[in-house]
Amino acid sequence: MDKKRIAVPLVCHGHSRPVVDLFYSPVTPDGFFLISASKDSSPMLRNGETGDWIGTFEGHKGAVWSVCLDTNALRAASGSADFTAKVWDALTGDELHSFEHKHIVRACAFSEDTHLLLTGGIEKVLRIYDLNCPDAPPREVDKSPGSVRTVAWMHSDQTILSSCTDMGGVRLWDVRSGKIVQTLETKSSVTSAEVSLDGRYITTADGSTVKFWDANHFGLVKSHNMPCTVESASLEPKYGNKFVAGGEDMWVRVFDFHTGDEIACNKGHHGPVHCVRFSPGGESYASGSEDGTIRIWQTGPLTHDDAESMAANGSVGQVKVSAEEVSRKIEGFHIAEEVKTKEKEAGNE
């Protein structure tokens, strides 16, 4: 039956402009969390399993291009077109630090040990902020050859990865010397770069190609041509046997890591897909789109029959977490009174 092959995603509404970045936390004692960046200037935190909204970080005055959570999901960071990178308390939603830049901040990343924040953007400068001494001036890594699009930490915070908006390639920087030690060559600019959970692979999306690189020896492991220009790709973290990619044709596709064969094609977004990310356990993956929605897709596709208990806000009865599990996150968060009331009413139904 055809209907058995149709995946039904959890649809997460809330953003009023395109969703341009997604980031999953590792699994914490409270579960795992998903943070989203949008051009509406308000990053949102959600329960990573159900997609349920937890809170919105309010304070940016321009589009937010990049978001991340630290290892424990206790702090969030965001980079914005308002020339700032902000660090937030992920339990209360309070702004902890605001780091001024001279131009748009396109990318940010917490170090693995959570003490440092890396930023990059239009200025062509990579900056490292010491969160233990937030008032101290940041350390500036050697000038980037182009406008920074993506950043990530590797090798237990010894190496920094960055890609540029206006040229191909991924640059790997030695944190101690601040110099480029390796460049992974690509024809088109790399719009998405992800270091796998086990530290083995770097997954890049450039143009209509998804590539996998050895994260320790830097050789090209696999290169797969995509059916359209893709903006983002993510490797399944548990087994590493498949990956997801999304781009201009509005579809979210799953591919076999080894062969590049298409396994699934998920339709539902009404605009180009800007970002895709696997959850930390690989049981689902999220996509963010120009249409302003986030969709969470189960790795084993749900059928229409399985999805009958799906609520309008994108939570599935079977995977609903208890209120206690996320109460620590929700308490104190700046939630609008009307939303509180709505949620209370929904809970009483």
UniProtKB/TrEMBL annotation:
For this chain, one GO molecular function annotation is:
RNA binding
Q: Which organism is it from?
A: Theobroma cacao (Cacao)
Keyword field: mRNA processing, mRNA splicing, Repeat, WD repeat
* Record-linked InterPro entries: WD40/YVTN_repeat-like_dom_sf, WD40_PAC1, WD40_repeat_dom_sf, WD40_rpt
The lineage's top-level taxon is: Eukaryota
WD repeat ranges per the UniProt record: 57-98, 98-132, 266-298
Q: Which CDD domains match?
A: WD40
Q: Which GO terms describe its biological process?
A: spliceosomal snRNP assembly
The UniProt entry's GO CC annotations, sorted and at most eight, read: SMN complex
Name it: Serine-threonine kinase receptor-associated protein
Q: Which family does it belong to?
A: Belongs to the WD repeat STRAP family.
Alphabetical list of PROSITE patterns matching this protein:
WD_REPEATS_2, WD_REPEATS_REGION
